[in-house]
Amino acid sequence: MTYPEFPDSENFTTIGDILNGAVDGKSISVRGWIYRTRSSGKLSFVVLRDSTGIIQSIVSSDSVSESSFTASKKALVESSVLVTGIPIKDERAPGGWELKASNFEVLHYADTFPITKDQSDEHLLNNRHLWLRSRDMVSCLKIRSTIFQAFRNYWISLGYSEVQSPSFTTSACEGGSTLFNVSYDDQNEKSGQKFYAHLSQSWQLYAEATMFGLEKIFTVAPSFRAEKSRTRRHLTEFWHAEVEAAWTHNHQMMELEEGMITTILNEVLSNNLSELEHLGRDVSLLQNVKGPFEKMKYSDVIDELNSLGFDLSWGDDFGYKEEKALTSSRTQPLFITHFPKEKGFYHRPDPADPKSLVCHDLLAPEGYGEIIGGGERIWSPEELDTRIREEGMEPSSYGWYMDLRKYGSVPHSGFGLGLDRLTSWICGAEHIKNVIPFPRTMRRTNP
Ligand code: 4AD
Ligand code: MG
C-alpha cells in the first residue's frame, strides 16, 4: 500500500462539529470510514462515520473530479476516506445535515466487510475486533469511559490515593470455587521447586495492608473469577473498582457509595446523552435516581422474596434469579445489609447480632441486581482467627493478613464495585458482554 500525502489534523473537522452546526456554510474536510453507501447514476450517497457521529455525503459527478466520483462509487463499507465539501442543513437527512462533496479521496479500499445487518451474537463475538467499530459498541465504550473517569475523580476529590495491588497472589479473598490457578514452575529451575499462584479475585487483602500507610485508597483493576455461572452479568475477567478507608464504619462507607453512584450518573447524563439515546436507554429512569437509597436487612429481603414465591431460609445465598425478582420493579438502587456470617470471613460480625455481618451489597434497579459488595472489616486479631477457623480455613495461610491486626489495628471499611455491571445497568444493556471491548468468559478468550 502506498501512503498518500496525509494532511495535518487541524485541517479536519469532526462529524460531531458539523452536526452541532459549528461549521455551517464553510468548506471543510472530514476523515473517517464509510458507514453505508449506495449510488445511482450520477450520484453517490456515502454515509461517513468517525468517532463522533455519522453524516451522509452526496458525491455528484457534476461537482467532483472523475477520479473522486469513481472512488466514491467503488469504495466499499469501512474503506477509509478523506472528504471535502460544504455541510448543508437538511431536516430530512439523518442527523439533520448533509455534506455536499467537492473532493472524495479513498485512503484504503476495504475488502467486503464480514459484518452485515442482523448477525448472530456469536458471529459478532467472533468478529469483535471489527464489531468494535459499530455505533452500539462506540456508544457503550464512551459511556464506560465516562464512568471510569467519574469513579476516579470522585474519590480523588475526597482525598483518596490510587494504588495498585498484584494480580498474582496466593491468598484467596472470595473463596476457592472461583480461583484461577497459575503455574510458576518454569521460574524456579535451580531449586526444582514448583510455585503456584492464583489470579486475584479482589485487591481487598492487599488494600487492607496498604491502607495503614495511606488511610484512604482506591484502585481500578481487572479481577479474575472462574465463574461457572452463565448469566448476563458474569465475566471471568472483569474491571473492579475498589475502595478501602481507615477510621470508617460500614454506614459511612455506604453513604460515600451513594454519593459515588449519583455523581457517576450525573457525569454520564451530562456527557453522554446522545450515546444513551442511541442505545434506546430510558434516560428519565437514570435522571430520577436519588439518594438516600433504600436499605433492607437480609432477613427482610428473604421475607420479600418468599412473598414473591421463593422458598428461602436464613443462610441461603442470592443468585441472579433472586436479585432480578427483587429489583425488576424497583427504580432506585437498593442496599442489603446484615448478611449471614458465611458471606465473608473478613467482614465484622454485628456485635448486636453476631450471626450477621456489618456489611452491605448494593443492587442496581430494573432487574440488574448486585453491583457492589462491601462492608466493615474485622479489626480484632482474636475475632479474625476465630472466623478463619470457622470457615474451615487455615490461619497460617493468612499469616501476613493476620499480622495487620497486630500493629495498631483500626476500624476500616471498603467495597468492590463491578464497573462492567455498573456500565451494563447505565447503558441498559442486555448482557455484560456488550459493554466491554473484548469480553472473557469460561468459553471465550479470543479475539
Ligand atoms: O461481591 P464481591 O465478590 O466482593 C469482593 O470481591 C470484595 N472483596 C470487594 C471489597 O470489599 N473490596 O465482588 C464485588 C463486585 C460485585 O458486586 C460485582 O459487581 C463484581 O464485583 N463482580 C463481577 N462482575 C462481573 N463478573 C463477575 N464474575 C463478577 N464477580 C464480581
Ligand atoms: Mg458479592
From TrEMBL:
<comment type="similarity">
    <text>Belongs to the class-II aminoacyl-tRNA synthetase family.</text>
</comment>
<dbReference type="GO" id="GO:0006421">
    <property type="term" value="P:asparaginyl-tRNA aminoacylation"/>
</dbReference>
<dbReference type="InterPro" id="IPR012340">
    <property type="entry name" value="NA-bd_OB-fold"/>
</dbReference>
<keyword id="KW-0547">Nucleotide-binding</keyword>
<dbReference type="Pfam" id="PF01336">
    <property type="entry name" value="tRNA_anti-codon"/>
</dbReference>
<dbReference type="InterPro" id="IPR002312">
    <property type="entry name" value="Asp/Asn-tRNA-synth_IIb"/>
</dbReference>
<dbReference type="InterPro" id="IPR045864">
    <property type="entry name" value="aa-tRNA-synth_II/BPL/LPL"/>
</dbReference>
<keyword id="KW-0067">ATP-binding</keyword>
<keyword id="KW-0648">Protein biosynthesis</keyword>
<keyword id="KW-0030">Aminoacyl-tRNA synthetase</keyword>
<dbReference type="InterPro" id="IPR004365">
    <property type="entry name" value="NA-bd_OB_tRNA"/>
</dbReference>
<dbReference type="InterPro" id="IPR006195">
    <property type="entry name" value="aa-tRNA-synth_II"/>
</dbReference>
<feature type="domain" description="Aminoacyl-transfer RNA synthetases class-II family profile">
    <location>
        <begin position="141"/>
        <end position="437"/>
    </location>
</feature>
<protein>
    <recommendedName>
        <fullName>Asparagine--tRNA ligase</fullName>
        <ecNumber>6.1.1.22</ecNumber>
    </recommendedName>
</protein>
<dbReference type="GO" id="GO:0003676">
    <property type="term" value="F:nucleic acid binding"/>
</dbReference>
<dbReference type="GO" id="GO:0004816">
    <property type="term" value="F:asparagine-tRNA ligase activity"/>
</dbReference>
<dbReference type="Pfam" id="PF00152">
    <property type="entry name" value="tRNA-synt_2"/>
</dbReference>
<dbReference type="InterPro" id="IPR004522">
    <property type="entry name" value="Asn-tRNA-ligase"/>
</dbReference>
<dbReference type="InterPro" id="IPR004364">
    <property type="entry name" value="Aa-tRNA-synt_II"/>
</dbReference>
<keyword id="KW-0436">Ligase</keyword>
<dbReference type="GO" id="GO:0005524">
    <property type="term" value="F:ATP binding"/>
</dbReference>
